[in-house]
Design brief:
Length: 553
Amino acid sequence: MSDPGNTTPTNFIRQTIDRDLANGKNDGRVATRFPPEPNGYLHIGHARAICLNFGIAEDYDGTCNLRFDDTNPEKEETEYAESITRDVEWLGYTWTELRYASDYFERLFQYAIELINRGKAYVDSQTGDTIRETRGTLTEPGIDSPCRGRPVEENLDLFRRMRAGEFEDGALVLRAKIDMASPNINMRDPILYRIRHARHWRTGDDWCIYPMYDYTQCISDAIEGVTHSLCTLEFEDHRPLYDWVLDNIDIPCHPQQIEFGRLNLDYTLMSKRLLNRLVKEKHVNGWDDPRLPTLSGLRRRGYTPTAIRDFCERAGITKSQGVVEMSMLENSIREDLDHTAPRAMAVLRPIKLVINNYPQDASELLTAQNHPKRPDMGTREIPFSNTLYVDREDFLEDPPKKFYRLSPGREVRLRYAYYVTCTEVIKDDDGEIVEIHCDYDPETRGGSSPDGRKVRGTIHWVSAAHAVDAEVRLYDRLFTVPAPTQNELSSQINSLSLLVLQGCKLEPYLGQPAAQPYQFERQGYFCTDPDSSKGSLVFNRTVTLRDSWSKKN
Ligand code: ATP
Ligand code: MG
C-alpha cells in the first residue's frame, strides 16, 4: 500500500500548481473546491475528484471548499446534500468552508445586470427550439437572434420582470452576447439564465429564474477566491466561456480552470442520472445497495476510506478518459483488509460432519490465531465437539484428481483442530448427502501430526452446538457487460449479482454485530450489514480472497 505520508504522486495538475507557485502567482495561495450538484449520491468517480481537490489543499497548505452547485431546483434535494457531506467526511476530508451556489443568487443576478449594462447580455424571446435550431453546427455558423440588438434599457426591464415572475417557464432567457459564428458552439450566445417556477430546496420560492452551470461555476469560483478550478474533461470546450464571463464583469479573482479525465469503471455506471434510474426502477435496493459504485454502497459493502483513497491514487490523474478495471478497486480493499481484518471461520453452505470416535456431549476449546501475519492481534478460543458443520463445497463423493478436500477414505485437517478421515456418507431418500461421518486422530490436536504425516487439504468448520446463524449476502458485478448502455440497462443487469445465503453457521465470536470487518477463512472479507439486529445477523461479502473473476472470464 502506498504511503501518502512520504510519497506524494505527482500529476500534470500538481505540476501546473508548482509552476504557478514558482512564478509567484496568486500570492502563493492554493485554493480548490469540490462542487457537486446535490442531485444524487456520490460515486467512486466523485471520490477521484474529492481526493484530487482536498489532497492538493492538504499537500500545499491551501484551502478546499465543499460547494453545492445547486442551480437545478427540480432535481435537487436535501437528502442528496446530506449524503454528500456524509460521504466527504467519511473519506476523511474536512472542507475549509461549506458553500452553496444558491447563496450567490443575488450576486449572480447583479453580475448579470452588469453584463446587460455593458451590452454583453440580452434577453431573448425566441422559443427554446428556435434557439437550439439557430445555434448552427460544427461546420455552419449560427444565426443571430432578432433580439440580439435589443436596447440595454429594454433588456434590463425584461430581465427584472423575469425575476419578478411575470413570465412563464421558457418564455424568455438571458443570453451572453458573444459570437454566433464562433467555431466553439459554447460561445454562440450561450444562455445565462432561464425561467423555472420551481421550489428550491434552500431558497424556496424566492427565485423563479435560475443561472446556468457555466455562468454560475466561474463566478462562484471567483467569489470564493479559488485559484485552480479542477473539473472533468467535458468542460474543456467550456473554458473560453468560463474566462469570458470573468473577463466581462468586475470581479477581482480569475481562477484557472484545468480539466482532467473522468474516472470510469467497467461493469458499472458512473452517472448520477443513470444510478438514479437504477434506484427508481428498483433494479437495486436504494442508493446504498452494496452492488452500486456509490460511496454509500461501497461503505455498506465494507469498503474502507483507506482503500478508496488508495484506489484513487493508483488510478491516477490523466488528461484522457480511460476505463479502469473493477479488479483494481477490489485489489485495493483486499490489500487493506488483508492487513486489518481478523480471521474467523464461517460455513456458508453447511453440511453436518459427525466425528464417531469423539466423546458425545463433550467439547473443548482450541486456540486459533486472529491473524496469521500479525501476532499482535492475538488468539481466540474456538469450541470443538463431535458434531460440526463444514462447507458442502469441501466434500465430494467422487473427487477429481486435484481435489484435496474431504471425500470418502480421505484424511484432511480441520483448521486449528484435528485430522479427520471420512468413514461414511449418510444420504436421504433422494440421494442427497445429509451427513458426513469421520474418525479423528486425537494425536493431531492443533492441526499437526506428531508422526510427521501430511495431509493436503485444510478445511474450515464450526461446532454445531456452538455456532450462530447468519444470513450472508454474496455480490457479483452488477452488469453482465463491461460497458452497460443506457438503452439496454435492464437487460444487462446481472441476475446473479446478489446471492442471499440463509442459515450460514458462524463461529460464536461473530455472534455480535461488529463494526469491524472480518476475513472468513477461505471465503473472503465480510462486514456486518446494517440490516442486522440482535439475534439476526446479516453479513455482506466485501470481496473474495482472490481475483477469481478475471480468470473466469
Ligand atoms: P454525474 O454525471 O455523475 O452527475 P457530474 O459531473 O454531473 O457527474 P457533479 O455533481 O457535477 O456530477 O460533480 C462534482 C464534481 O465531481 C465535478 O467537478 C466533476 O467533474 C467530478 N466528477 C464527477 N464524476 C466524475 C468522474 N467519474 N471522475 C472524476 N471526477 C468526476
Ligand atoms: Mg452534473
